[in-house]
Amino acid sequence: MTVDKETQYDRQLRLWATSGQSNLERSHIALINVSATGCEVLKNLILPGIGKYTIIDDKEVTQEDLSSNFFLKLKDLGKKLAHCVKTNLNELNTDVQGFAIEKSLEQVLANDKENSFWDQFHCVIVSNYTPRLHELIDILWDKHIPLLVVNTVGFYGSLNLIANETTVIETHDPSKLFDLRIDQPWSELQQFADSFNLDELDDQEHAHVPYIVIFIKALQFWKLEHEGNSPSSYHEKKSFKALVESMSRNINIETNFIEALQSCHRAFQKTEVPSSIQTLVDSIDSKTFDGKTPLFWIYIAALKEFLQLNSNILPLPGKLPDMASDTKNYTNLSRLYREKALKDQYLFTDQVHNILNRIGRDQETVTSESIATFCKNASLLFVTSGSKHLLNESLLTLLGPSSELLESNTTPTAESNMISIYVGILTYNAYIEQHKVSPTIDDLDEFLSVYRSTILHSNSATSINTPPPPHQVQSSTLEIFKEILLHNSTNYPNLSSIMGGVASQEILKLTTAQYIPLDNLFIFDGIKSSSERFKIQ
C-alpha cells in the first residue's frame, strides 16, 4: 500500500505548507549520543519526513539501554548502539535516510582536523553529557550551524539552543492582523470606495457594501470633523462606532453594518512600520554585504530602500478577511488588494536585484516565491542573537540574594527553583567530566564541591577563597541536588518523551524556517509539571 505525500503529511502541511515541508526534506540532522531522549527527538523528526539523519555514538547496547529505549530490541544486546537504533528508526519512514557513525565525538573531532565534517548538517543535537562539548560549540558557532543540547536527569530536563543568530520570516505570529490600509487607502482603493454613493443605493445594494468601504467613508467624515485625526481615545472610538451605526438604514438586519460594528478595531489600525521592524531596518547600515551575506539581511536592506520609495509604508500582504458582501463587490475588492500586493512585490524585487548587482551576486539566488513570502510577513519578522555560553552570572543571580549562602529569611521562588534545577544538571555533567561516573546520593559532598568549582567559580566575577560547608548551600537548591542524585537516571521514559518532543519541535522550527524558536534556554520540572524559559546573553 502506498500513500502519496500530500495525504501522508496532510496535518503538518497545514502548519508550514509545501515550502516548509521542502525545507524539512532537504535537512540533515546529527545526533551525538544515543539516549532515550535522543531517540525521541529523532522519532519526532523522522515521522514528519526529515531528509537525513546521522547518529554518532561508539557505545554498545546494554541491559539498561534495553529497559529505557523503545527503539532497541532484545537481539540488539551487545551490538553497536548507533547501528541498532538507526536500523529500527528507519522502519518509521522509508522516505528518510539514516546513517550511523560508530565513533565517539572525541574520535570524530580528532579525525576531522579541518572541521569540514560538520558542514553537511543543518542542525546538531547533543543528548546528555558528552566530552569536548565546548569545542563542538565553538566549531558550530563559527559555521552558523544551530546546536541543541538536551539533558534529562531524574525528573528534570533542560534544553539549550545555541545559535549565534536566528532569523525567521514566516513567524505565524498569532497577533498578526489583516493589513487593510483603511486609514491610508492607496488611489485605486480610494476610487473604489468613492464609487459607492450610499444614499443612492437601493436597500439590497446598501446591505452588501463591504465594511472596508464603510470604514473608509466613515473615517473621511470623521477626519473632517477632527482636524484630520483618526479616533484614538476610548470616547472617540465609541463615537466612531456610533457614526458607523448611523450610516446603516436598519442596523438590525443589515449584516454588513452589524459586521462593521464588530470589526471596528480594523478601522482603528494605524498603517505604520512596527518599532521592531524599524529597528531592524535602522541596523542595516552597520552590516557589510558580500557573496555570503544571508538572504534575510539582503531583504532587510531592500526593505529600507522600499520604504524610502513607498512613503515609509510596508509592502501590502494583499490578503482579505471574509466579510458580508455580494460576489461582485468582494471580487473587485480582492482584486484591488491582490494587484496592489503584486505591485509592491515588483518594487521590492527591483530593490533586491539592485543590491545583488552591487555586491556581485546572481539574481537567481532569490525566487519570486521567497520575495512574496517576505513581503507578506514583513511586519512580523523575528531576529535574535544567541550565546554560546551555557551559563552566565546574571542567570546565577536569579537563585536569590546569594547563590551559595543559606538565607533563612529568603523564600525560594519558582524562578530560582528552575535555575537550581539547571545548575544541578550542569553540575551532574561536570561531575561525570571529572570522575567518569555518574554521581549518586552518596557523592553529595563531592557533588557540591564540583558545583562550587565549576559553576560558581567559573561564572562569578569574585573568587570564593574558602567554600562554605555543604549545609550552607541554599536549602532549596540543596534539596533539588539531592533529588537529582536520588534519581540519577538520564533515561526515564516520561521525561525522555517530553524533552524529546520539546527539542524536536525547536528543530522543526529551525529546519522549516517557520515559527519563532526557543530563545534560548528551556527548563522542565517533572515533579511540579512546570517549565520556564530564560535568555542567556
From TrEMBL:
Primary site of residence: cytoplasm
Cellular localization per UniProt: Cytoplasm
Coiled-coil ranges (or none): none
Pathway: Protein modification; protein neddylation
InterPro entries on file: APP-BP1 (IPR030667), ThiF/MoeB/HesA (IPR045886), ThiF_NAD_FAD-bd (IPR000594), Ubiquitin-activating_enz (IPR035985)
Annotated transmembrane regions: none
Location of the THIF-type NAD/FAD binding fold domain: 9-536
Keywords for this protein: Cytoplasm, Ubl conjugation pathway
Superkingdom of the organism of origin: Eukaryota
GO MF, any single term: NEDD8 activating enzyme activity
GO terms of biological process kind: protein neddylation
A single Gene Ontology CC term: cytoplasm
Function: Regulatory subunit of the dimeric UBA3-ULA1 E1 enzyme.
Family: Belongs to the ubiquitin-activating E1 family. ULA1 subfamily.
Name of the featured protein: NEDD8-activating enzyme E1 regulatory subunit
